[in-house]
């Protein structure tokens, strides 16, 4: 037992000694933006980043990240961010109720693996993985993402 406590103290000491040094190194060298990523802002204020990737071929991935999660909730609102995440899949003023998933499925997407979302501490992320990235599937995916700003709930 004494040997176990010795190892625990060694690990605590090493963690305490290394963690501040790693934090200071990261603070002194900010990451440079990748020049291959094209950034922009739409007229409605939505910011985007596009990165071309040739592998796997003819596929695409769309992510809509919102800077809101369960840390934005008041105690009496617990679960609201997660509820809104789910309700966004029900439709919007531009996409009829119950038609969002079928609209995306007609492009080969599967709900759960290709169409998904999550809510965490500080963000809500919607993800669409396009198995066949055609102009039509990209347009449908972007339409779903952009128009979900006014989802029905």
Descriptive notes:
The chain has four helices and five strands. The protein has helices at about 1-30, 80-85, 100-105, 135-145, and strands spanning about 40, 45-50, 60-65, 115-120, 125-130. A three-stranded antiparallel β-sheet has the order 3-5-4, with helices on one face. It has a two-stranded antiparallel ribbon with strand order 1-2. A hairpin with a 4-residue loop joins strand 4 (about 115-120) and strand 5 (about 125-130). The radius of gyration is 21 Å and the shape is globular. The termini are far apart. Mean pLDDT is about 80; it is low at about 5-20.
Which key phrases capture this entry?
153 residues, alpha+beta, three-stranded antiparallel sheet, two-stranded antiparallel ribbon, 18% strand, globular
**Strand order in the largest sheet:** 3-5-4
Order of helices and strands: HEEEHHEEH
Percent of residues in beta strands: 15-25%
Number of helices: 4
Q: Would you count the extended β strands for me?
A: 5
Distance between the termini: 57 Å
Report the sheet with the most strands, covering strand number, pairing sense and barrel closure.
Answer: 3 strands, antiparallel
Structural class: alpha+beta
The unreliable regions are: 4-18
Task: Give the overall shape, derived from the CA principal axes.
Answer: globular
Radius of gyration: 21 Å
Mean pLDDT: 78
Helix content: 25-40%
